[in-house]
């Protein structure tokens, strides 16, 4: 469950508060998948770091957890779009144009025996 260092770090910060109980991660019906646990830890981390009760809130610009989620979501979407564009450009650079045109050519009716 916490096999990735990032998740361990998120859990450490998220459950450092006195009212937070990490045993909820072990309850069998609370989370259906690893992704659910990761999402929970991510949200708990943002709540802890950007809440008004957190000591370092001023160091993070005084943002609310909702504002932080919005900006992080925007940055993640932007990074994904840029990576997809680079991936597509890289694929185009690796495939010779002639081979793409040849592989995309549709057979003629004569070739199909029609």
Q: How does the major sheet shape up?
A: none
Give the overall shape: extended
What is the total tally of β strands? 0
Low-confidence stretches: 100-104
Rounded Rg: 24 Å
Rounded mean pLDDT score: 77
Helix and strand element order: HHHH
Structural class: mainly alpha
Helix share bin: 55-70%
The fraction of residues assigned to DSSP E strands is under 5%
How many angstroms does the end-to-end distance come to?
A: 59 Å
Number of helices: 4
Explain what you see.
The chain has 114 residues and is mainly α. The chain is built from four helices and no strands. Helix 1 packs across helix 2. It is extended and about 70 Å long. About 4% of the residues have low confidence.
Short description:
This protein has helices at residues 5-14, 34-50, 65-94, 97-104. It is mostly helical.
Which terms summarize this structure?
mainly alpha; 114 residues; 4 helices; extended
Topology of this protein?
Elements: H1 5-14, H2 34-50, H3 65-94, H4 97-104
Helix pairs in contact: 1-2
